[in-house]
Amino acid sequence: MKLYEWDFAPNCRRVRMFLLEKGIEVPKEECITSNIVLKDPYLAKYEHAMVPMLELDDGAQIGEALSIWIYLETLHPEPPLMGTTALEKATISAWERRAYDEGMVGHAEIFRNSHPKFVDRGLPGHREPVPQISGLIDRGKLRVARFHRKFNEQLSRNKFVAGDRFSVADITTITVVDFGHALEMQIPDDCPYVKRWYDEVQLRESVRQSLPTHLPDGSPMPVAA
Amino acid sequence: MKLYEWDFAPNCRRVRMFLLEKGIEVPKEECITSNIVLKDPYLAKYEHAMVPMLELDDGAQIGEALSIWIYLETLHPEPPLMGTTALEKATISAWERRAYDEGMVGHAEIFRNSHPKFVDRGLPGHREPVPQISGLIDRGKLRVARFHRKFNEQLSRNKFVAGDRFSVADITTITVVDFGHALEMQIPDDCPYVKRWYDEVQLRESVRQSLPTHLPDGSPMPVAA
Questions:
Q1: Within an 8 Å CB–CB cutoff, is residue A85 touching chain B?
Q2: ipTM score of complex
Q3: In A, which residues are within 8 Å of B62 by CB distance?
Q4: Are B22 and B72 in contact (CB under 8 A)?
Q5: Helix axes A65-75, B86-98, angle to 10 degrees
Q6: Rounded Cα gap, residues A25 and B75, in angstroms
Q7: What is the dihedral of CA A105, A83, A94, A67, to 10 degrees?
Q8: Do A94 and B136 touch (CB under 8 A)?
Q9: Full pLDDT tens readout for chain A, 225 residues
Q10: Is B145 on the interface with A (CB under 8 A)?
Q11: Is A94 on the interface with B (CB under 8 A)?
């Protein structure tokens, strides 16, 4: 197996943190140039033109962070990160999806539609130009505000995002919050339960070790204020 | 169990088609007014303010179509719609996600940002105003064009979207194509493999029976040209 990635990309971190939680070691290859485009050999290899991608020894390619998780969870069920009972699995999936749709997409809309290196690259995976849309910066902020409110409420009632156990819902939520730090957006002061949870999960080795080392411009990755 | 839905909503159809494939009967409640807003009792019941939502007999709520599928697939594994081996599960998940991110989100961007009843409702699940963004109509069309190209290529090599068996990847893709019909967008002429597959899946009872009956304006749901 080999994991193709871009160290900064939040979706790649979702996979790295999962691997660390499971104790699975997989060789990794960084696929991005200093100009923040995917390298040509990778583009030639993988038609979907996105990272992460897990390549199996027989050449099979698994794209999408969620799908890589599903593959690894099936082969390495312990410790379970995607639930064991039907209701646990569904609850973790729903909260992971909310973290993604509200937090991750919100931050990605802000990042992709404002960053000078992403002019005409408003969406990942497109080989033709996709113009940036400045209105998505404000819409992204609305999504992120809803994310913080909703997750503060949820974390006021639960130790972890989807209940009593650490799960992929936490992995995506941690990735979202640290993506925010990269955009100079902090956990709002009126979200004390998100802060309590965030401080607690910092104690996990998987969280610290999976943090990207650098921002896209090459400066060090910022930490929480 | 009870399924709360809006008959036209593509994400609700994903659940209806799944239930029909499994042969599971669940009572359904339509939650939308003639003005296309969610009814007050439903909004009071379900904080996420979206459909579909599956309510269990003990009151537990499962939101998100994917999470409802996971719940039902775990309790009713036959016939499998989400794969059985690790690689099958991951492959189905990845293609289902592509159908969603490229096709469903593309159509939703066109629909939400152009429909006169969705002024200030640019995103689902927000209780405060979210302005429409007209630039997302063209961006949505770019996404949908990529969806058609990519799925035509995939269906040139495979009977179904994710391989030899009908799966949730087909369910989402069918829903995307018919959402396109509701927006007067047909399968492009240069996508013969999508057309071949679409004609074949029309033979399934689950596909026909799950089709919405009406457009949001009350006129009959259109069929393929």
A1: yes
A2: 0.96
A3: 87, 90-91, 94
A4: yes
A5: 170
A6: 32
A7: 40
A8: no
A9: 999 999 999 999 999 999 999 999 999 999 999 889 999 999 999 999 999 999 999 999 999 999 999 999 999 999 999 999 999 999 999 999 999 999 999 999 999 999 999 999 999 998 889 999 999 999 999 999 999 999 999 999 999 999 999 999 999 999 999 999 999 999 999 999 999 999 999 999 999 999 999 998 889 998 777
A10: no
A11: yes
Phi, psi of B69, deg, nearest 5: -55, -50
Give me the domains of chain B, ranges plus CATH numbers. Answer: 2-75 (3.40.30.10), 86-210 (1.20.1050.10)
Residue partners of B60: CB distance under 8 A and separation at least 6: A87
Distance from CA of A157 to the nearest CA of B (A): 15
Of A74, A87, A142, the CB nearest to B89: A74
- Model pTM score: 0.97
Cβ of B87 and A71 within 8 Å?
yes
Chain A nearest-CA residue for B68? A90
**Nearest residue on chain A to B55, judged by CA atoms?**
A87
Q: Given CB atoms, is B136 within the 8 Å cutoff of chain A?
A: yes
